[in-house]
Amino acid sequence: xxKEDIDAVTGTATTGHEWDGIKELNNPLPRWWLxxxxxxxxxxxxxxxxxxxxxxxxxxxxxxxxxxxxxNVAADMAALQALRGEKGAALAKAELVDxxxxxxxxxxxxxxxxxxxxxxxxxCHGTGATGSKGFPNLNDDDWLWGGTLEAVHQTIQYxxxxxxxxxRENLMPAFGKDGTLKKDEIVQVASYVRSLAGLPVPQGVNLxxxxxLFADNCTVCHGxxxxxxxxxxxxxxxxxxxLYGSDQEAVVETITNSRxxxxxxxxxxxxxxxxxxxAVYVHTLGGGR
Length: 289
Fold this sequence. Notes:
By secondary structure, the protein is mainly alpha-helical.
């Protein structure tokens, strides 16, 4: 039988393990630590029994308590609908055109829409709906796809280039990337477009050439007067409202490589009443054109 090794400094027996001259003392674990460890094991076993825990082939163990986070969400949604009461039911049944005619219903829709906007739309459009580069300002009554309540409702429902079959779709050509226009021609068009909004343009640029290039390539969507076409999602280029910036470099970049921002379709993510409330809220933000 091997002789027990006692550490000369502490007087404690060692485990016999040694690394680079360092010996491991055979100190027992504190009792409080052991009891905590044992309690954790017992808690884990009880948790496995009480709550859903073990995956099976096509399902999972449901647990003795029958807990389900999905069921809890459904119960919370039902409680929310009950809390909304008559106003919620009235909003669900009301036609869009009738909501803004009823002050009480309008106030209720705006309150619900404001909450939904903060949860779902503010990350892109901002808490005040003022937008940022690439994300439209929803307060200025300038709408790419139309500012009627019905148009706003459709945009929220199906999104823009979202992949939904009913999504808003348009595609501005990448005139530079596709080789349709040369670099100097793009500069001329960009300068002409900026001049339409009263913005300064670089000296020496041939604006007449830019005007002709615009007429040949851009008026089909933006119109002869460059005031856009909501049916195509083509913006008004004369109003100094620029989604991706109005400086010369930004406009040149847009003409060269195009832009293709995406807005999600909310019809499959939010219930119809919430989408309706969102449409009313957003519509009233922009002045209700």
